[in-house]
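Quick note —
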Amino acid sequence: MLVALVTLGAGSSDERVRPARWAKAICTALSDWAGAIATAQRGVDPEEPDLRERRRVLVEYLDSVAGATRTLLGEFKQAGIPDVDDGKPIARAFRQGVREARDAFAAAADDVAALQVADTETFEQGQNDVYEQIQEARGDAAAPFTEVAEKYDTAKLDAAFEKESACSGSG
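Predicted structure written out below.
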């Protein structure tokens, strides 16, 4: 269940919280993040013929996604630490995955902004390269979540995620 959460109000960052409270905070944050990304994606046309406009819209979209991901990181910090064995490294790994995603989106925005618009074929190759980088980065960002599932006993958290209604659309 923990790995599936990525393949998308609590306490302070050092506060130990019940697994159910932590799961609710994480899933609510992920749901808000997914909504922000969906909103940002409206109006993005990867085949817009005006390359300057396409570049502008893609940069705006990626900047919005990076901003939403910064917000997600803050919400993960505010979720606290799940009161389970190895709760601190689990919470740290979740935040690390979000940091990786944030950095990937910010870098992608910079890369798109640097694309030259003089030649359609060159622009589109650069755009495709950025999309591939984002896909690669998604895998890198998911690695800490996979590590959690492999390295720690997450049964209590898995149960909390499964019981939490806020998590039903997250995985």
